[in-house]
Design brief:
The protein is an alpha/beta fold. The chain contains 8 helices and 5 strands. The protein has one domain: P-loop containing nucleotide triphosphate hydrolases (Rossmann fold, 3-Layer(aba) Sandwich), CATH 3.40.50. Bound molecules: shikimate-3-phosphate (S3P).
C-alpha cells in the first residue's frame, strides 16, 4: 500500500471532533516525533484565530491558508501532523500529504461527533441554526476523501489510549517496524 513511498511523517485527517489533536500529541510523544497542527500553523501565519480568519477573510481565504501550510509541510521530518477537518476535501492537499506522510483518518459517526463538539463554540462551520444537520451534510460530502486515507481508524467505542495504540501500530507497520503487542 505504501511501498515505494516516503513515510517520514504521520498525518491525522478526519472530521472535527474525531480527536486528531489529542491523539496526535500522544502519538508524537510515543514515537519521539514533533507535533504540528495545521490550524495552529494557519493562526501563526495569519496572526489571528481561526474564527477571526473565517469572520474577517472568509472561508475561501482560510482554504488558501490551508493550501499554503500543506506546501510547508513537505519540508517537515519526524512530525505527527493533525490537520483541520476540511483540509483533505481538496484532493491536491491529500496527494501532497501522501508524498511524505502516512495518512491516517480518524472516524466517528455524526451523532458521536455532535456529542463531542457541542458546547465548543470555537468552530465557525458549526455556527448554524442546526449544527447536527450541518455535521451530517459535511461528513457525507467529505466521506469519499476521508476514505482515500491510507488507514481508517474508528474512534467509536474506543478510548483515546486505544486509538493511540492503534495509530502507532499502523505507523510502525507502514515503516516496516511492527510493534510487538
Ligand atoms: C474545519 C475544521 C477545523 C478548522 C476549521 C474548519 C472544517 O479544524 O480547520 O474550523 O472545515 O471541518 P478541526 O477539525 O481541528 O476542528
Amino acid at each position: 500500500m505504501t511501498s515505494g513511498r516516503v513515510v517520514r511523517n504521520l498525518a491525522l485527517v478526519g472530521f472535527m471532533g474525531t480527536g486528531k489533536s489529542s491523539v496526535g500529541q500522544l502519538v508524537a510523544a510515543q514515537l519521539h516525533f514533533r507535533f504540528a497542527d495545521t490550524d495552529e500553523l494557519i493562526e501563526a501565519r495569519a496572526g489571528k484565530s481561526i474564527s477571526a480568519v473565517f469572520a474577517e477573510e472568509g472561508e475561501p481565504q482560510f482554504r488558501e491558508h490551508e493550501r499554503a501550510v500543506v506546501e510547508e509541510l513537505r519540508n517537515f521530518h519526524r512530525t505527527v501532523i493533525a490537520t483541520g477537518g476540511g483540509l483533505v476535501a481538496n484532493e491536491e492537499n491529500l496527494n501532497s500529504l501522501k508524498s511524505h506522510a502516512l495518512v491516517i483518518c480518524l472516524w466517528a459517526s455524526p451523532e458521536t461527533i455532535w456529542e463531542r463538539v457541542r458546547g465548543q463554540p470555537h468552530r465557525p462551520l458549526l455556527r448554524t441554526p442546526d449544527p447536527p444537520a450541518k455535521i451530517r451534510q459535511l461528513l457525507a460530502e467529505r466521506e469519499p476523501f476521508y476514505r482515500r486515507a491510507d488507514v481508517l481508524v474508528s474512534t467509536e467505542l474506543r478510548s483515546v489510549k486505544e486509538v493511540v495504540h492503534h495509530v502507532v501500530h499502523q505507523f510502525r507497520l507502514a515503516r516496516g517496524h511492527p510493534s510487538h503487542p
